[in-house]
């Protein structure tokens, strides 16, 4: 029986909607063989070629690789190991096809492909492939499933990705690992001083005084790169044509933004999504969402975001990842959004789905421990830091409840601290009952953290009962702060009207007194959905609903101006 580590599970659920324990064990779905009818229909969309053995079809780092259907011969899919060395991952044979998730976008691809012998194949350009997959729906479904499973296999087996070298789970190591995992990018983490780590350090000349280091195939080393630098080097951000005017720009890729992107792109709106970090937003850090419609056993925030991210790309939405929106202005009949790195995005309409940022505790030395013991997410990556230790969860909402239940599977004990008399007013009943019934979770009401202790890393926490004044100090190395968020609207300046708390006001009557879309802001053509919208219900399901419903308002807005 095979088992997966928490880190592997985290990587897998980031994009694997099929939740396969090992995709390579599902050969019929991961590497399907098409039947004669499917071959004939698919071949009509491409061009047949005969190529000699050793012909390179695509290489790691290419953008916009073609799709190949094998009629005779074989195609070797390989990863680069450095120093000109390669290793074959799999071999496609008669009536099988190449590709994985990056065939739905213009990111740099992860692997190379070459003919293993003299071969006859059908080549589909990216435009041909998109036309085929949208028209031949049965074939498209087979290909989509295979692409998802292939990427999931890369993640599970640490193939075709990068190597992350560090002294331990430092702030920047976790930052880089989270960013890659949440963006579905394979990463192998080397913290222990073993033979594999020493080989990488010596072979690639890693500067041990400037860790963490990211080693990219080809032996290039990035010493403690910023998120944007890493995204650029790995090609996670697609190139943006600054002169192109999109129909719609969605700012933020949380549940509401992803929903808006999927529905807009599926209805033939030319759509781009601008996201500062990774698909999913705050919901993407949730270990398990159990009350989302259609998932009776629950689904992680990463897996849900992964489904929607793939779905949006399937319909043609473009994603600008690791690019924060910095300013917005109206320019004639369109809007211009300045994004990090100096680029700009132009669009006819805008959906603000930029959500909120995590609220922090007001404590001395608090910033010192962020990423060194204080966390805002509870996924398997954080869970593996808590093995057989006591941890603290601060907060009384659903995110805090989900985190406490999830972490109880890793930690020796979970202490939940809330300032109120109980949880009933702020948390779903199923989570309240689960916390009450767990022998590994203790609820501390009317309590708040008063002191944090530790030199470089957090190692002790003191909390105080606000009514009795009694204090407790425990050896705790990890605190999960889930006390809500503040709207992510500073970058908007005075572009749209905000309420007293900084949330975007929507739905006011027009000058004539006629009712407007509930998602319309004070500026025509700009809409707001999800957590950033004033008076919205802060739930994943409501955010998804707002994102989808908003698109009808955008169609109406565009129709009035055509």
Automatic annotation (TrEMBL):
Q: Sorted alphabetically, which keywords does the UniProt record give?
A: Flavoprotein, Oxidoreductase
Stretches of Polar residues bias are at 1-16
For this UniProt entry, the molecular function terms from Gene Ontology, in alphabetical order, are: oxidoreductase activity
Q: Where is this region: Disordered?
A: 1-22
PROSITE patterns associated with the record: CNMP_BINDING_3
**SMART domains annotated for this entry?**
cNMP
Task: Name the InterPro entries on file.
Answer: cNMP-bd_dom, cNMP-bd_dom_sf, FAD/NAD-bd_sf, FAD/NAD-binding_dom, Ferredoxin-NADP_redctase_2, RmlC-like_jellyroll
Residues forming the Cyclic nucleotide-binding domain are 30-150
Instruction: Extract the SUPFAM superfamilies matched here.
Output: cAMP-binding domain-like, FAD/NAD(P)-binding domain
Q: Which PANTHER family match?
A: THIOREDOXIN REDUCTASE 1-RELATED-RELATED
The name on file for this protein is Thioredoxin reductase
């Amino acid at each position: 029986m095979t088992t997966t580590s928490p880190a592997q599970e985290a990587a897998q659920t980031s994009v694997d909607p099929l939740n396969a324990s090992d995709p390579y064990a599902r050969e019929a779905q991961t590497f399907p063989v098409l039947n004669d009818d499917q071959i004939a229909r698919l071949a009509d969309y491409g061009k047949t070629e005969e190529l000699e053995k050793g012909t390179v079809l695509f290489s790691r780092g290419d953008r916009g690789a073609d799709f190949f259907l094998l009629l005779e011969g074989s195609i070797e899919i390989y990863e680069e190991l450095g120093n000109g060395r390669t290793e074959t991952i799999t071999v496609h044979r008669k009536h099988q096809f190449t590709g994985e998730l990056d065939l739905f976008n213009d990111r740099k691809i992860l692997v190379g492909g070459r003919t293993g012998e003299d071969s006859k194949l059908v080549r589909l350009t990216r435009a041909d492939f998109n036309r085929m997959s949208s028209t031949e729906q049965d074939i498209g479904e087979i290909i989509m499933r295979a692409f998802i499973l292939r990427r999931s296999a890369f993640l599970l087996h640490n193939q075709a990705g990068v190597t992350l070298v560090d002294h331990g789970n430092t702030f920047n190591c976790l930052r880089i690992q989270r960013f890659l995992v949440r963006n579905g990018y394979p990463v192998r983490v080397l913290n222990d001083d073993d033979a594999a780590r020493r080989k990488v350090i010596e072979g690639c000349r890693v500067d041990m005084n400037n860790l963490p280091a990211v080693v990219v195939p080809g032996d290039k080393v990035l010493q403690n790169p910023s998120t944007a630098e890493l995204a650029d080097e790995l090609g996670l951000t697609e190139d943006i044509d600054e002169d192109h005017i999109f129909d719609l720009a969605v700012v933020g890729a949380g549940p509401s933004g992803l929903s808006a992107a999927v529905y807009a792109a599926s209805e033939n709106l030319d759509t781009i999504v601008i996201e500062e970090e990774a698909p999913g937003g705050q919901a993407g850090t949730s270990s398990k969402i159990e009350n989302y419609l259609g998932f009776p056993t629950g689904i992680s925030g990463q897996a849900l975001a992964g489904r929607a991210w793939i779905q949006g790309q399937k319909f043609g939405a473009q994603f600008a990842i690791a690019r924060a929106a910095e300013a917005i202005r109206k320019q004639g009949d369109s809007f211009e959004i300045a994004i990090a790195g100096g680029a700009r995005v132009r669009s006819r309409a805008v959906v603000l789905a930029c959500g909120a940022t995590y609220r922090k505790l007001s404590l001395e030395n608090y910033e010192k421990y962020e990423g060194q013991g204080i966390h805002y997410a509870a996924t398997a990556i954080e869970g593996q830091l808590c093995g057989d230790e006591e941890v603290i969860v601060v907060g009384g909402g659903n995110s805090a409840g989900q985190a406490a239940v999830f972490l109880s599977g890793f930690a020796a004990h979970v202490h939940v601290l809330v300032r109120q008399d109980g949880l009933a007013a702020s948390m779903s009943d199923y989570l309240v009952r689960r916390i009450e019934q767990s022998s590994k979770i203790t609820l501390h009401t009317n309590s708040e953290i008063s002191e944090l202790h530790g030199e470089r890393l957090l190692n002790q926490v003191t909390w105080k009962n606000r009514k009795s004044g009694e204090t407790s100090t425990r050896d705790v190395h990890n605190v999960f702060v889930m006390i809500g968020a503040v709207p992510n609207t500073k970058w908007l300046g005075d572009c749209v009207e905000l309420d007293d708390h900084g949330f975007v006001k929507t739905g006011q009557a027009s000058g004539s007194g006629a009712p407007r879309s509930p998602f319309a802001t004070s500026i025509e053509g700009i809409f707001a959905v999800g957590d950033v919208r004033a008076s919205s219900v802060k739930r994943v399901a409501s955010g998804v609903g707002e994102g989808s419903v908003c698109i009808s308002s955008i169609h109406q807005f565009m129709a009035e101006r055509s």
